[in-house]
DNA sequence: CCCATTACTTATCATTTGATAACAAAACTA
DNA sequence: TAGTTTTGTTATCAAATGATAAGTAATGGG
């Protein structure tokens, strides 16, 4: 197996993933939040409950800036903070009711476009895709 | 095949791809250029020669902003512009010698990290990965 | 109890990025 | 050739983002 060729394939693959992701997610976010805020909400949606430190680490945003953006999201009533009862320095962040509604709508929109994209795939294609996602998830993008 | 489940798998997959891509590419770019400028150079590297319009479309940057960033890259001697002889409105953008050196170094660094990541994969694993990349590239991220 | 560490906040500033209006030059079109 | 479209530029402004310094409060280890 030529690892150099595999690298090149990986480069164009990730480029395609980014491009398609952009296509499926463009204009799904409300105008009332910024792109970075949307990313934070998306991360919370998938991983909640999370701490500000988690967000800082995983979204690669400094703690001061994370704190600022969370404050803004809080002021917009999209998230809720709960202090850990064990360690009162820690905060657990969750989507608020409004936040959940906003993200449900956004993800439904993305899902619609996704289903549209695979509408012409045969049963076998879908199974191939499913297997391929598993393979890459476990062996490359772990 | 449950398409809803496939969508969820797709969401976590793309999240992983973005995360791993970030890991492999972090700190590879010179401090003398901004993230957006790096993306433009990367796009030029893969697709050259390209026109400003191509960059604007594919990188989702407005023409005025594309023009501004290209001007900055030009001032840093990282790219060269050549006017089309047939249609003199068009410009073809290429990496300059310096630009090529910069991107070669950056990509070599990314490749090093990539090889590191797959160093423990068996021959069969690599073949699985290779096939999976092909499947997804043709059937999902086309 | 004291000191170091952790988790998070506040304030401030510079830079980057995005958006818009107005323009110029070349090419196409009727 | 006059008007329109395409391709790209310049200028300007506001907003988003990133970086840093300084601070608070809770925890944990001697």
Tell me how many strands of chain A there are: 2
Structural class of chain A: mainly alpha
Q: What is the C-alpha radius of gyration of chain A, as a whole number of Å?
A: 18 Å
Biggest interface, CB < 8 A: A-B, 49 and 49 residues
What would you note in describing this structure?
- The structure is a homodimer of 142-residue chains.
- The two termini of chain A are 21 Å apart.
- Chain A has a domain of 87 residues: Winged helix-like DNA-binding domain superfamily/Winged helix DNA-binding domain (Arc Repressor Mutant, subunit A, Orthogonal Bundle), CATH 1.10.10.10.
- The first copy, chain A, has 142 residues and is mainly alpha-helical.
- The mean pLDDT of chain A is 96.
- The first copy, chain A, contains six helices and two strands, in the order H-H-H-H-E-E-H-H.
- The longest helix of chain A has 23 residues.
- In chain A, strand 1 and strand 2 form a beta hairpin.
- The first copy, chain A, is 67% helix and 7% strand.
- The first copy, chain A, is globular.
- Chain A has a two-stranded antiparallel sheet with strand order 1-2.
- Chains A and B meet through helix 1, helix 5 and helix 6 of A and helix 1, helix 5 and helix 6 of B.
- Chain B binds a DNA duplex (30 and 30 nucleotides) through helix 3 and helix 4.
- Chains A, B: Keywords: DNA-binding.
- Chains A, B: Pfam families: MarR_2 (PF12802).
- Chains A, B: This is MarR family transcriptional regulator.
């Amino acid at each position: 197996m030529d690892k150099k060729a595999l690298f090149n394939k990986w480069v164009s693959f990730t480029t395609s993933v980014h491009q398609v992701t952009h296509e499926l997610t463009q204009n799904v976010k409300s105008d009332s939040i910024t792109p970075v805020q949307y990313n934070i909400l998306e991360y919370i949606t998938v991983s909640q409950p999370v701490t500000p430190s988690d967000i800082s680490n995983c979204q690669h945003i400094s703690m001061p800036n994370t704190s600022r953006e969370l404050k803004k999201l809080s002021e917009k009533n999209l998230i809720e903070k709960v202090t850990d009862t064990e360690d009162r320095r820690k905060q657990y962040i969750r989507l608020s009711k409004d936040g959940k509604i906003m993200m449900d709508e956004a993800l439904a929109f993305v899902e619609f476009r996704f289903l549209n994209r695979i509408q012409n795939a045969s049963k076998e294609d879908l199974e191939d895709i499913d297997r391929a996602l598993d393979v890459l998830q476990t062996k490359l993008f772990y």
